[in-house]
């Protein structure tokens, strides 16, 4: 516990680290620019995020710092890095896209990062996940009750952070809508696990799309919209950024689904065919289950004994190609939303490079 202030002090100083548009068609376009955008936004947000976490109860603050990857259990500085900071970058870019300086979106970035981590703390408990980013999840490291408490504290801190801003009431309303959708998406995702592979009660691809938009897309859209709100944008601009983020969330989730079945574990860090071994109802799987080969796919998934055969059969049934088509469709919708809003040119370019990077990722 005594080392915790040192870790948080480092955080405050920022010392811890149609067809789609060209940026979405060409992986190199986003691959070069996006990491620089992420680094720039993290450097801008990190001191404020560390300061916010430093206001928590010391024990709760340590759990929060552990969840961000800043410290180990007990407070010693961590060697492991945290996440990429995608949502906080979207908030900063949302403010810049509205014509404001990036610092105008920092409070939005802090709030969204707090909410995202809150959702991960609770998701890991609900899903029974024991590891995240190569080390024990918070509930495994500290216990279920303490991890729930830390998540609750981060949620309360996010609301407090937004409420203190000049357009705080509007920002809190925007966050509340996104949180309501996130909860609905998480509820659907949990219920999907208990539904049958085949028959009238099976999960349909359109249900999956709605779940992914809520569970993954709502917070991505909220991040960009919140930055725009605090940057002084009108409701039309904020709404367009929210729509873009929601479509991005569906594309992001579907790409993640494909990596979970066909991704190279040397690149993704995930076990080969991991999602099939866990019998997850991902988009490619749902498409294949609705095909003429659906009965054979269901039989393989039910036993879980031959994931490599299941992967090949899902591809033969059209699951992989349908997933790629669906992801591209949502990327086109992202560009349509962005094209319909009066965004500052430089910030819009950074935003597009980041969106391309997210769906072209290999890790």
The percentage helix is over 70%
Overall 3D form: globular
Strand content: under 5%
- Strand line-up of the largest beta sheet: 1-2
Unreliable spans are 1-30
CA radius of gyration: 20 Å
Strand count, sense and barrel status of the largest sheet are: 2 strands, antiparallel
- Summarize model confidence as the mean pLDDT: 88
Count of DSSP helices?
18
Spatial separation of the terminal alpha carbons: 33 Å
Structural class: mainly alpha
Order of helices and strands: HHHHHHEEHHHHHHHHHHHH
Per DSSP E runs of 2 or more residues, the count of β-strands stands at 2
Task: Give an account of the 3D structure.
By secondary structure, this protein is mostly helical. 72% of the residues lie in helices and 1% in strands. The protein is built from 18 helices and two strands. Helix 5 (86-97) packs antiparallel against helix 6. It is globular, with a radius of gyration of 20 Å. The model is unreliable at 1-30 (pLDDT under 50).
Secondary structure topology:
Blueprint: H1 4-13, H2 22-25, H3 27-53, H4 58-68, H5 86-97, H6 106-127, E1 131-132, E2 135-136, H7 138-142, H8 144-163, H9 168-192, H10 205-230, H11 235-262, H12 265-268, H13 274-277, H14 283-289, H15 294-303, H16 307-316, H17 319-339, H18 345-359
Antiparallel strand pairs: 1-2
């Amino acid at each position: 516990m005594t080392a915790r202030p040192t870790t948080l002090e480092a955080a405050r100083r920022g010392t811890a680290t149609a067809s789609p548009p060209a940026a979405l068609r060409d992986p190199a376009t986003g691959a070069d620019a996006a990491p620089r955008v992420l680094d720039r936004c993290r450097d801008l947000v990190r001191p404020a995020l560390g300061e916010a976490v430093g206001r928590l109860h010391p024990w709760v603050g340590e759990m929060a710092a552990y969840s961000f990857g800043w410290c180990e259990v007990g407070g010693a500085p961590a060697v492991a890095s945290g996440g990429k900071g995608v949502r906080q970058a979207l908030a900063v870019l949302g403010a810049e896209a509205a014509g404001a300086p990036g610092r105008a979106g920092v409070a939005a970035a802090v709030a969204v990062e707090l909410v995202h981590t809150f959702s991960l703390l609770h998701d890991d408990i609900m899903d029974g996940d024991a590891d995240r980013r190569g080390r024990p999840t918070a509930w495994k490291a500290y216990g279920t009750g303490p991890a729930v408490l830390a998540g609750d504290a981060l949620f309360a801190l996010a609301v407090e952070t937004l409420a203190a801003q000049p357009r705080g009431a509007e920002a809190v309303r925007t966050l509340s809508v996104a949180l309501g959708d996130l909860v609905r998406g998480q509820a659907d995702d949990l219920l999907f696990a208990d539904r049958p592979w085949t028959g009238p009660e099976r999960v349909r691809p359109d249900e999956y799309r709605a779940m992914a938009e809520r569970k993954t897309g709502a917070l991505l859209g909220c991040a960009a919209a919140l930055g725009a709100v605090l940057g002084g944008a009108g409701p039309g601009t904020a709404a367009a950024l929210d729509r873009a983020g929601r479509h991005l969330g569906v594309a992001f989730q579907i790409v993640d689904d494909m990596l979970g079945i066909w991704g190279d574990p040397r690149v993704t860090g995930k076990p080969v065919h991991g999602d099939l071994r866990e019998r997850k109802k991902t988009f490619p799987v749902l498409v294949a289950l609705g095909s003429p080969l659906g009965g054979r796919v269901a039989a393989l998934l039910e036993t879980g004994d031959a994931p490599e055969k299941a992967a090949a059969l899902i591809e033969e049934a059209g699951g992989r190609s349908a997933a790629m088509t669906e992801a591209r469709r949502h990327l086109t919708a992202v560009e349509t939303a962005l094209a319909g809003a009066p965004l500052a040119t430089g910030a819009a370019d950074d935003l597009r490079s980041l969106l391309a990077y997210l769906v072209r990722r290999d890790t």
